[in-house]
Design goal:
The protein contains five helices and three strands; from the N terminus they run H-H-H-H-E-E-H-E. By secondary structure, the protein is α+β, with helices and mostly antiparallel strands. The termini are far apart.
């Protein structure tokens, strides 16, 4: 019995094709035509890839906002702790260091006589680039608290 590839070759060998081209032609008839499969797979995967990309960007922006809030709280608490500023001036310093007047930061300075605690809070939904899932992922606040001992 002649193998199926060799039977195919004998049937379709009326023009001078190389063996590799004939083998590809034989595979195409056996397996079906797969042209365009990559485009379909890409179209299926693209929404998931874009979602992951925006998630990474979103996480980075929230992390950057939290880092900026920590820096502003630390500088404001230090300024108040060394007697360089009053409570209102320390809060104004923190807001000026935050650079984003469009956000509604909530600042609180607490002096208990031996130490100062400076808190900054921001709703996470405000820091979000895309706020499509407000009730699930972007609920809550970004909160930062810094405590420093008062100098005497």
């Amino acid at each position: 019995m002649i193998p199926s590839f060799h039977r195919f070759m004998m049937k379709h060998n009326n023009h001078q094709n190389s063996e590799i081209t004939s083998y590809r032609c034989w595979l195409r008839t056996r397996l079906g035509d797969s042209r365009g499969a990559v485009a379909i797979e890409f179209a299926i995967m693209l929404p998931m890839l874009i979602t992951i990309l925006f998630g990474i960007i979103q996480y980075g922006l929230i992390l950057n906002t939290r880092q900026l809030m920590t820096y502003a709280a630390r500088e404001a608490a230090r300024s108040y702790a060394i007697g360089e500023s009053t409570g209102d001036e320390a809060e104004a310093l923190a807001i000026s260091l935050l650079n984003n007047a469009s956000y509604n930061y909530d600042t609180t300075l607490t002096d208990d006589g031996t130490s100062v605690q400076f808190d900054i809070s921001l709703p996470m939904a405000e820091a979000a680039l895309v706020n499509a899932l407000e009730d699930s992922l972007m609920s809550g606040n970004i909160e930062v608290s810094v405590t420093m001992r008062l100098e005497e």
